[in-house]
Amino acid sequence: MYTTLWQKVLADIAATESPIVVETWLKPLIVASTSTSDTLVLKAPNRFFSDFVDLHYRQIIMSIVIKHNALIKKIIIVALEKNAVVAPPAPDIQPNITQANRTTTSSAAIKPTNYIFNKNFTFDTFVTGPGNEFAKSAALAVAKAPGKTKFNPLLIYSGVGLGKTHLLHAIGNYLLTNSKDSIITYTSSEEFYLNFIDAIKNNNTKKFSQVFKASNALLIDDVQFFSGKESTQEEFFHIFNTLYQNRQQIVLTTDVTPSLLTGLQDRVISRFQWGLCVDIQPPNLETRIAILKKKAEESNLSISESILTYIAEHIFSNIRELEGIIIRLLAYASITQQDITIELVQNIISDKTKKKTSKVSIDEIINAVADYYKVPVNNIREKNRRKEVAFCRQLAMYMVKLFTNYSLKSIGLHFGGRDHSTVIHAVQTIEKLKISDSNIASDIEIITSVIKNN
Question: What do you get for the CA distance between the two ends of the chain, in Å?
């Protein structure tokens, strides 16, 4: 029914996503027939595949689908397994709600959907390190005592692929297991918005609001997408107030700290800060190695310590990239029945960084940074500890990693013989500053433009 539509969606996604993503995760999806005209059902090769696509690519698929066909309100991604049954679509204006005890349903709520959180995303599977330990502890605290701690609302913020959605699902999984009579509502901000528009169209805004207000725990992912949507923010504001006053737990995620959110009403941002705001920082080298080990063990994949270390030294921006490497290695091992070698890993990492160019030299990058900030080039290379020089050195290391294929060790050698851990720290520092300081983000864009033009 929607085969042609799906081909158009794939073409649009291919224009923005990498070919690896499209070939590995999206092209294998098959459009399944459904009796409901407002639902697109996609079948994946297996349960792992469907879970991964649902988590990582559901939102981008939905946003492009509605551009081509505004009548579609839902996407269902299921596993193409023997005797698999396509689940019926959720009722209109319905968020993802799970009620552990389905024999008693609140009179204010619509009959809940059978939403299942990603079973792989639990507190036990969340690898803890210095950059995420506090966020995990806070998430576990609200899961154990929803609405009874001072962490209400709990807002978790971080860059892409660092684990905030994992923690959100971990809270949902924990509540399902340990709060048998609770109504748990989970939705993304985009789904909230689309369902709210649908409710307005059908004159059902009161029922829409009641669904959320009946929740014992409300989990919303990526609230930054409420930006600019005034009526949606108004509706969310009243839902938030009702749940907060009733001491029901609210957990939100966003990509930046609330003070940096734009396009949101001041009163909404203020409520985000009533409880606890906690960030997740990029994982350090040891944490990245631990994540790789855990993912490899979960996939029954045998990888040597040296290869894991090599991957961790070259992939450090987010956890999702680390998972992607393991998945590609798993696919290779399954298809070829061959051992995983360092050469194979180097080729895969090279593919992921092929947009970088070695035509830009380290000297050119250092000169561009030094010229922009009016700092002597030699000071950046030497062991000068002045704050402004140290910052320029970190920024130069970050841009060398961004524009070239030099190893961490090689980069360190070009900056006064520093080791790879110093380079990693520099890159992570600049990544965080890009998010928290708009002036630095602007500086990076200008310097990048200069380097490219040269």
Answer: 51
d(CA 194, CA 38): 13
Sorted by sequence, the CB contacts under 8 Å of residue 429 that are 6+ apart come out as 394
Question: Smallest Cα–Cα separation from 101: which of 211, 184, 180, 212?
Answer: 180
Tokens at 364, concatenated? 């050119």
Which run of H or E residues covers position 236? helix 230-245
* Contact call for residues 364 and 451 (beta carbons, < 8 A): yes
For the chain, which residues score pLDDT lower than 50? 82-93, 101-114, 355-358
Binning the chain into helix, strand and coil, the percentages to the nearest 5 are 55, 10, 35
pLDDT of residue 97: 63
Which residue type occupies 386? R
* Separation between Cα atoms, residue 6 and residue 380, nearest integer Å: 51
**What region does 341 belong to: left with phi over 0, alpha with psi -120 to 50, or beta?**
beta
- Report the candidate in 375, 405, 419 with the shortest Cα–Cα distance to residue 393: 375
The Cα–Cα gap between 303 and 294 comes to 11
Q: Say if CB 215 and CB 236 are below 8 A apart.
A: no
Report all structural domains of the chain as residue ranges with CATH numbers, in order of start.
3-79 (3.30.300.180), 98-279 (3.40.50.300), 285-352 (1.10.8.60), 362-453 (1.10.1750.10)
List the one residue out of 211, 217, 168, 165 whose CA is nearest residue 192: 211
Q: Name residue, tokens 């989990």.
A: 219
Read off the pLDDT of residues 217-241 as tens digits, 9 standing for 90 and up: 999 998 988 988 889 999 999 999 9
Give the count of alpha carbons within 13 A of 89, CB side only.
Answer: 19
How many CA atoms are closer than 13 Å to the CA of 213, on its beta-carbon side?
A: 16
The helix/strand/coil state of 119 is coil
Question: pTM score, two decimals?
Answer: 0.57
Q: List pLDDT tens digits, range 295-337.
A: 888 777 778 888 888 888 877 667 777 777 787 777 776 677 7
Q: Are 112 and 105 in contact (CB under 8 A)?
A: yes
Q: Using CA atoms, how far apart are residues 87 and 236, in angstroms rounded to an integer?
A: 29
* Euclidean distance between CA atoms 440 and 260, whole angstroms: 14
pLDDT at site 340: 81
